[in-house]
Amino acid sequence: MMDSWFYRYILNSTWFLWTVTVLIIALNFLSPILVWLVMAGKMDKLKLRKKSKTTASGSRGGG
């Protein structure tokens, strides 16, 4: 395995190692932002559902 062409020229090259390192660091910095955006979007949808349920139930009994 250590003498294969793929390991020697791809996996063990500096450009590949730096690419992997930068991607991992970028994901570590961006993941809280991505999670926050996803959770904020879900919270908005939940608020809209609650509002639509309360307005729909309020309009049913007003006959």
Rg from alpha-carbon coordinates: 25 Å
Order of H and E elements: HH
**Strand share of the residues?**
under 5%
Binned, the helix content reads over 70%
Alpha-carbon distance between the termini? 79 Å
Main beta-sheet strand count, sense and barrel state: none
Shape: rod-shaped
Number of helices: 2
Low-confidence segments, ≥5 residues, pLDDT <50?
Answer: none
SS-based class: mainly alpha
Average pLDDT for all residues = 82
- Overall number of strands: 0
Structure explained in plain terms:
It is rod-shaped and about 70 Å long. By secondary structure, the chain is an all-alpha fold.
Write a short abstract of this structure:
Helix content is 86%, strand content 0%. The protein is built from two helices and no strands. The relative contact order is 0.06.
List keywords for this structure.
63 residues; 2 helices; 86% helix; mainly alpha
Q: Which helices and strands occur, and which strands form pairs?
A:
Blueprint: H1 5-11, H2 14-60
